[in-house]
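Pinned message: reference record for Fatty acid desaturase family protein
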Amino acid sequence: MTILTETKDGPLVLSPSDIEEIGRALDELRDRVAADLGERDREYLYKVIKAQRGFEVAGRGLMYLGFLPPFWLAAVASLAVSKILDNMEIGHNVMHGQYDWMREPDVNSREFEWDNVCPADQWKHSHNYMHHTFTNIHGMDRDIGYGILRIDEGQKWNPYYLGNPLYAFLLMVLFEWGVMVHDAEAENIVQGKRKWSDLKPLMKGWWKKAGRQTLKDYVVFPALTGPLFLSTLAGNATANLVRNVWAFSIIFCGHFPSGVQTFTQDETMDETRGEWYIRQMLGSANIDGGKLFHIMSGNLSHQIEHHLFPDLPAGRYPEMAPEVKALCEKFGLPYNTGPFSKQIGSVWAKIFKLALPDSFTKGDPTPGVIVMRKREATEAGV
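Predicted structure (C-alpha cells):
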C-alpha cells in the first residue's frame, strides 16, 4: 500500500516493523474484548430491542389519535426512533454477526430480518463482504459513490456528475430503496457490463421483501386506523423518510468527510494484516457525540472502530476508541473525528465540489501516509 498524497510536513512513512506493531496491537485489543463478551453485552442488546419495540407500539397506538396534530407528530417521532434503532443499533449490528456468539436465533446474523425493504442476504453481500473487505478500493468497493455519485477525486469526471447534488438528495430521501438495489450494479447495466437477466434472483428477493414492507407500512397499518387511513399513511411515510435521512447522514459522515482516503487495487495488492488495519483507519471517520447520539447512530459514529472490528458488538466501540486513537497518535496516523455539523458539512461540500470538472476544483489537503513493504524497505535501506 502506498499513498503518495503529501501533508504540509511531507508524507508520513511507516516501516514494516511499524506496520507489524500496529497489527499486533489491534489484534490484541480485539482478542481482549472478544474474550470479555458476556452477559453485559447480552443485556445491552435486549435493552435496545425492548426500547425499539416500545417506541413502535407507542407510535402505532398514537396514530389512532392522529387527527390531533400533537399526537400525529408524537406518533411519527416514536415510529422514526423505532425504525432507526431497528436498522442501525439492532439490524446492522446483528447482521454483522456481532451477537452470533450468543447462539440465540432471534439475534443471529443468519436468521435476522430488519424493518427495511432490502433483503438481509443481499445487504450482507454488498455490505459485509464487498464493502468491509475492499473498503475504499476503487473498482472494488461499490460504496464509493454507490454507483451514482462522484464522491472522490479518484473517480473520473464526466458531465453526468453535474447532477451530483440532486443524485445525493434523492439517495438520501430514498435511502432504503437505494440500499435495496445496490447489488444490481445499475451503472454496469448502463455500460453493458451486466445483463438485465442477471437481476432475476435479486428481483425475486426485492419483490418478496419490499412487497411485505410496503404492504405493512402503506396498507395494513393505515387500514387498521380506519377513517385515519390517510393520516397514518402519511405518518408512516414520514417516519421512513426521517429514518432514511438519518441513516444516510450517519453513514456518509463515517465514509466521505474531508480527510478520508481512498486506494487503488495496485496499492492494496497482497495486503498484510497490519496494512489492512491501516487502510480501515485511513478510510473511515468518526463523529463526536454523547451516549444517546452513539446509540441512535448504531455506534457507527465510531466508524473507525467499526471498520477495524466489524464483528465485535458495537456497544464496545466507545471503550475501544481511546486505545485506537492513542495508537494512531503514537505512529502519527490521522484519527479523523469531529462534531456532526463539521462532518456532514464537509460531506455535502465535497458532493457539490466534485460535481464540477477537475479544472474548477483543487485537491483536498488529505493526510499522506506511505506504507513501506518489506521489499520497498530493503531497497530503500530502511
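Pinned by admin. Summary line: Confidence is low (pLDDT under 50) at residues 1-7.
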